[in-house]
Amino acid sequence: MSASDRRAFSRGPVARDHHRIRRVTAPDSLDLHHQGEERVIGVYLLETADGLALNDCGPSNCIPALEERLAERGLALTDLGHLLLSHIHLDHAGAAGGLVRKHPGLQVHVSEIGAPHLVDPTRLERSARRLYGDEFDTLWGELAPVPQQNIHVVGAEVVGLVCFPSPGHASHHVCYLSREGTLYAGDAAGVRIVPDRHIMPVSPPPDIDLDAWERTIDEIELRAPERLALIHFGVVEQPREHLRRLRRQLRLWAQRVRQGMSEEEFIDAARADLEEEVADAPYYERAAPLWQSYLGLKRYWDKQLQSV
After folding, report:
1. How far from the centroid of its chain's Cα atoms is residue 294's Cα?
2. Tens digit of each residue's pLDDT (9 = 90 or more) over 269-302
3. How far is C-alpha 10 from the chain's CA centre?
4. For the whole model, what pTM was predicted?
5. Angle between helices 210-223 and 239-258 in degrees, nearest 10
6. CA 73 to chain centre
7. Where do runs of H (alpha helix) occur along the chain?
8. Cα Dmax for the chain
9. Residue 45: CB partners within 8 Å, gap ≥ 6?
10. CA–CA separation, 239 vs 221, rounded Å?
């Protein structure tokens, strides 16, 4: 063994590939180039107590890009032991079934609510097709089932990471916190295309819950992560300031819809917010279409009125 290899072993867990040894640092973002665009969907490669894992996996039409990103690191799908899903929306989990078909040993971790929809994605696909219409297949590709034997319902700890419920964006959302202080946030911390500062609290239908999201932000703040790993897109190194601005923007969006803004007015206002802070505003909407957030917030307030 060379001196450099001995140093790699001394630093902790490593991945082997063709007798080469490399350190897998966390968080390691893999850009899936969704629809040919950079910085729209990124997933994370991380070392766990039981080998290499992937945090979220993107849609099935991004599987070739995922394999390319792994190959660039000297890895293949079969080097992954676990898939840690934040929630089952297609931009985060649509490829799960396809990945297990290619790598039957992959173990998939998901919330109790989300698990049945991975085993039988019929209702999930039907709902998504209503939302996306003819664009469904182009945007997401195949939605394949995950075999029951590959599914693990998450608890308070998953392969050495702390796991906790984080509803708001979705009722079944969970986050993972590594011992190094990285919070793998899914969509619970919103959309922010790093290095930009602007945050969009993406809120698509059907189950946005503003009160639950406020509590989730409280919970993340209480756990005081060192950094946030965002699927859309990049690593945030100042989580306290990010969460403060996320909360402010969520309340602003919610109030606009509650006060009666139309979809067009809401989109115009959100775009104006963007243009104040970022040079290339349209690319945010590729990660978080504003019409979806309007529909999600409108549905939330309509349900609140119906319950009175």
Report:
1. 20
2. 999 888 766 755 667 888 889 999 999 999 999 9
3. 32
4. 0.86
5. 170
6. 21
7. 3-11, 63-72, 90-93, 96-102, 115-119, 122-132, 136-140, 210-223, 239-258, 263-277, 282-287, 290-307
8. 70
9. 24, 26, 28, 30, 52, 53, 54, 70, 73, 75
10. 8
